[in-house]
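In this section we walk through a basic example: taking a raw amino acid sequence and producing a predicted 3D structure, encoded as discrete structure tokens. The instruction is simple. Fold the sequence below.
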Amino acid sequence: MQTSPQTTSVTETASAPATPRSGFVAAIVTVIAAAAAVWAAQQGLNSYLVTLLALLFINAALAVSLTLTNGLTGLFSLGHPAFMTIGAYVAAILTFSARRKGSMLPGLPDWLASTELSMFPALLIAGLVGGLVALAIGWAVLRLKGHYLAVATLGLIIVVQGLATNWDGITRGGAGLSGLPRHVNIWWALGFLVIVVAITWRIKYSSLGRAMMAVRENELAASCSGINAARLKILAFVIGAVMAAMAGALLAHLISVVTPKTYSVLLAFNIVVMVVIGGSGSITGAVVAATAITVLSEALRPVEESIGLYGMSQVIVALCLIVVLYLKPGGLFGSGEPAFVRRLFSGRKTQ
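The resulting token sequence is shown next.
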């Protein structure tokens, strides 16, 4: 009898015995190895490739955060770009030079116009604002299910873009905010990815994660067993939004600009494709798919420009999605993690 990917993800959390210390040591060694690789990349690669590597890390973090929201809890949210836009503008306004705010952003209140923060507190505030917005929106839209929720969160992107475009005194309208201080480098991106993966992994392999997956599999049965499904879905939605808002803030300060259309519906499509190809609920799959799609898109960009066939990379990404879903409907890794990854980082012996 075959076992479904979802069943596999539940049984893997019950594998024993557990040796958490070995998993923690493996995680530390992996982070040190990644830091060494980043240091080597800084020494041997040009600035464009180093920036591309930082972009890859942020994209992987976004895919993992959407895995937490959609993959573990079974929601179908497309709202990540909306929270990224909110986070990017909040952080940009807070880090923007106080001398330029008076002329460029005349609609700001005096206390905000005179405020100029460093990147770390601005990043935390951006995540907090994104989380509060998600909490307010979540109570309304999470009553919807399936494609109704997808349409509602898609509408959220349009609403946020409209506000950013028309709120001239605060956001400079369609021109956006350019010349942002380039506070973020590849080390910020790597650190953010590590934190997002660690939080998501910790949630997935905890009683909270098992409750989320129970809601995903059968919300009615989960509710009958005492699980507050509505509260769990709100929690997953808010955590994912906080991560997305912080990712938007980091990306804006990596490329030094943010406009109302920097984080668009197309980005929502790409992030969802990363999650679906990797396997909805698989952290490893999200990282692998984000890496592959980011590299593929950047590799095809010169080809698009040389032959004038713009959008070709998106067509190829869509074809890859169709092929993967045809061959492996559950994605590359289903909703679980590869056995060696699970054994390495969970310190558990697979059965």
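Looking at the output, two observations stand out. Confidence is low (pLDDT under 50) at residues 1-11, 13-17. The beta strands are 177-178, 257-258. In the next section we compare this with other chains.
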